[in-house]
Design goal:
Layout: H1 2-35, H2 40-61, H3 66-81, H4 88-111, H5 116-132, H6 137-156, H7 164-185, H8 190-217, H9 223-251, H10 255-282, H11 311-329, H12 338-349, H13 361-385, H14 395-410, H15 429-451, H16 457-466, H17 473-501, H18 505-522, H19 527-544, H20 550-573, H21 579-605, H22 613-630, H23 632-635, H24 642-669, H25 684-702, E1 711-712, H26 717-723, H27 734-753, E2 760-761
Parallel strand pairs: 1-2
Helix pairs in contact: 1-8, 2-3, 2-7, 2-18, 3-6, 3-7, 4-6, 4-7, 5-6, 5-15, 8-9, 8-10, 8-11, 9-10, 10-13, 10-24, 11-12, 11-13, 12-13, 12-14, 15-16, 15-20, 16-20, 17-19, 17-20, 18-19, 21-22, 21-24, 21-25, 22-24, 24-27, 25-27
Length: 769
């Protein structure tokens, strides 16, 4: 019996160890999934490396030479990363069309190899066509990229006419191996991608809640760091939500399902962000400003005694934040058992005023936020994983499920239409970029020939690359700078790696594969890192071709600097799009979409017709994300205009704050048509009109349209409603929350007026400075 007990204890300890190992593994995987939403970077790296490995294996079995193996590896890499379409059928069509394009490019490269002037002219025309093809979407971009890169491969391996038959076979093998890896070895479907993106959203939501728990207990000396972490995790959660929205159309079975998932993801994001704001507000001496959550290095709110000596309430709050984190961290397959149901019931109970603990108003607001976040998590589970066990539901949980059922009946997928660019001729971005890169490439060809008659194409490649995914002179300047920095560091690594591998061919190929994986895994994170891995890989390829020397790598730096300079000259001289102009265009678009969201939401809250508010909010988020990217040249550390850099950061933070309140307003307004607790209030229409008119004045100023109006910063919105005969507003009610978002929006729009030099009028028409 004692032996049996000892054995039972041993197996109990063993089981506990296994459970701890599983929890550690799950936590580590969640961290990785959160760092790479949808595993898109990992899959891209594995797919590219897999295509190259399979190509090398096939070519090695055919006993081909090193030169053909290098050409095959580079072609497999190009044919894999160039295809970006989401649908599997579209990928197959593009890959099939890419092979004849590659064969034509290789043929022309080999035939024009000895004809300097015709070859240079054709290269420039090819570059022009490759950039111009971007106007035809993902397929046009992919075919243009394949044509340019394969022509570059022909120059790199110094292809000649006699070698064409073998090169044709090599290209066919490379494309075939790319197809095998893409569709069989590392398959990627929209449904699978969306499922992984959902897991990343869950993991990032858990990270944000963990940081909010740290915020609750952070001391004054730790508050700066915790707030930085909170901003970063809030931004990462928003990024994951946008990525999910971008894959909903292809990854769901119908428009209604897409609309439902979009709604639940938006609810969870809004509720989690609001919970962080409520915690910050509860631990601050006075109500914290929402911009603190979006402006880097914003002043830390003064800590005070708003939570007082509420030890029992704070202990309960800490316990329930941990419980909420547990609910989010648990996967649906693990979401079983009475204990979890009781935790969920307790959290959802905080949506009822009678279940709130005795505490100050600020702390009670946090408990309400906990209840709303728990409701959003439940809705997300129902939308993503289907019906769940309801046997242990409390009345509060049952009410939440009934609300979801009512909402689900009203959610239908709205028909989406792409915004078509009505610009034509030289005003079209792709046409302008094609002329710019053609001029820059011509300069790069001429300058590159002076530096080296054999390696001149490196300058052209750099000129081409700095134009990819850029839309203004500032973006091209920053990208050229990053490429140069990455190239210099890559040359140093290339020297070390070349000395390391010596004459060991397969060791060099193994390191090439590591560099290729590094290129595509780090590409979305850092262009400098991608350039580093690219240059290190090229050093190894030169070693394989027996053309490596330190002089060659130094020449690589010189050609890169020349190509970047030629690209910048082309962007500045030919049909330039200055960064100011680009950001002003995008700023105007963001403001217009902000007005659309606010006006439509307030109209619906006032009793107007139902519209697709979350679709409008998504359009706002997309425009704001584009604006944020276009301002990077203005906020980059190399920018000498420090005052301007601060102003731009402040403007973007204000817009992010306004977008958060607009999303919250839209999410609440969508409940009005079928909610039993939220009734339309016609008196809100006046507040919506004032905010809309103020935004119109800002848009007119940004668009350089003549305007003589002043932004109205009159009475607060609650004061306006009380003056109109509204009943007293009570803290904690849904109406109060809507008005708080409207008030913050009103203040944010007035705050935008000052840096945009729009006059601001006070309550009686006097200028408020």
């Amino acid at each position: 019996m004692l032996e049996h007990c000892g054995s039972g204890q041993k197996w109990g300890v063993y089981g506990s160890v296994l459970a701890a190992i599983r929890r550690t593994g799950t936590h580590s995987w969640d961290r990785f999934a959160a760092s790479d939403p949808g595993l898109l970077r990992l899959m891209a790296g594995l797919r590219t490396v897999g295509a190259v490995v399979l190509t090398l294996v096939v070519l090695a079995l055919l006993d081909t030479g090193v030169t053909l193996m290098v050409a095959g590896a580079m072609t497999a890499m190009v044919s894999t990363f160039a295809v970006k379409e989401k649908e599997v059928r579209g990928q197959a069509v593009t890959l099939a069309l890419g092979l004849p394009v590659a064969l034509a490019a290789m043929s022309l490269g080999a035939l024009l190899h000895t004809l300097v002037i015709p070859g240079d002219l054709f290269f420039v025309l090819l570059i022009f066509g490759a950039v111009y093809c971007r106007r035809f979407g993902d397929r046009g971009t992919a075919l243009g990229l394949i044509g340019f890169q394969v022509y570059f491969v022909s120059l790199f391996v110094q292809a000649g006419g006699p070698a064409l038959p073998e090169l044709y076979l090599t290209l066919g093998i490379a494309f075939g191996c790319s197809a095998v890896v893409r569709f069989a070895v590392v398959p990627e479907t929209p449904t699978r991608t969306l499922r992984r993106l959902r897991e990343a959203f869950r993991a990032r939501l858990a990270q944000l809640l963990a940081t909010q728990l740290e915020l609750l207990d952070a001391g004054p000396d730790e508050l700066d760091k915790v707030l930085d972490d909170l901003r970063r995790h809030t931004s990462r959660l928003h990024e994951a939500a946008l990525m999910i929205q971008g894959h909903l159309e292809e990854g769901t079975r119908d428009a209604a399902t897409a609309g439902l998932v979009q709604r639940r993801v938006a609810d969870a994001e809004i509720a989690a962000e609001r919970l962080g704001m409520l915690i910050l507000n509860a631990r601050s001496a006075e109500r914290a400003d929402t911009i603190t959550m979006h402006l880097p290095h914003a002043p830390v709110p003064a800590t005070g005694n708003r939570m007082g000596s509420e030890d029992d309430a704070i202990a309960a709050l800490r316990r329930d934040l941990n419980a909420l984190l547990l609910l989010v961290a648990r996967r649906a397959s693990e979401d079983r058992g009475t204990a979890l149901a009781l935790v969920r019931n307790r959290l959802l109970g905080y949506r009822e005023e009678d279940d709130l603990p005795r505490a100050s108003a600020a702390v009670q607001d946090v408990f309400r936020g906990l209840g709303e976040t728990a409701r959003a998590v439940l809705g997300l589970r129902l939308a993503l994983d289907g019906p769940q066990d309801e046997s242990d539901d409390s009345p509060a949980t049952t009410r939440s499920r009934e609300e979801f059922d009512a909402e689900d009946l009203s959610i239908v997928g709205a028909d989406e239409t792409e915004d078509e660019d009505d610009r034509t001729g030289l005003e079209r971005p792709t046409t302008r970029a094609a002329f710019q890169v053609a001029v820059g490439s011509t300069l790069a060809v001429i300058g590159g020939e002076f530096l080296s008659s054999q390696r001149w194409y490196w300058a052209v490649l750099t000129c081409w690359v700095v134009f990819l995914n850029t839309a203004s002179t500032g973006e091209i300047l920053v990208k050229g700078y990053r490429r140069l920095v990455g190239t210099v560091l890559g040359v140093i690594a290339g020297v070390a790696l070349a000395g390391l591998v010596g004459n060991h061919t397969w060791a060099a190929f193994a390191l090439v594969l590591l560099c290729i994986f590094g290129m595509w895994f780090t590409a979305p994170l850092s262009y400098a890192l991608m350039s580093f891995f690219t240059t290190a890989m090229l050093g190894l390829l030169y070693t394989l071709l027996n053309t490596y020397s330190l002089d060659v790598l130094v020449l690589r730096i010189e050609e890169t600097a020349l190509g970047a300079a030629c690209g910048i000259i082309g962007a500045v001289v030919v049909l330039p799009v200055h960064t100011d102009r680009r950001t002003d265009e995008l700023l105007g678009t963001v403001l217009e979409r902000l007005r659309d969201v606010v006006s439509a939401a307030v109209e619906q809250l006032s009793g107007g017709p139902a519209v697709d508010l979350l679709g409008l909010a998504r359009d706002l988020d997309t425009a704001l994300d584009e604006l944020r990217g276009s301002t990077q040249p203005l906020t980059h550390p190399i920018s000498p205009l420090r005052g301007r850099r601060r102003t731009v950061r402040y403007l973007v933070a204000l817009l992010e704050t306004c977008a958060y309140h607009a999303r919250s307003l839209a999410a609440t307004a969508e409940l009005v048509p079928y909610s039993r607790t939220i009734a339309a209030d016609p008196r809100l229409a006046g507040a919506g009109r004032r905010i809309g008119q103020n935004i119109d004045l800002l848009v007119a100023q940004v668009r350089d349209e003549s305007t003589k109006g002043e932004v109205d910063s009159g009475f607060s919105i609650p004061a306006m409603l009380e003056a109109a005969g509204a009943e007293a507003l009570q803290s904690g009610t849904v109406t109060f929350r809507v008005l708080r978002h409207l008030q913050r929006l009103d203040e944010g729009v007035v705050g935008l007026a000052r840096p945009l030099d729009v006059p601001v009028a006070g309550p009686k028409g006097s200028k408020a400075g």
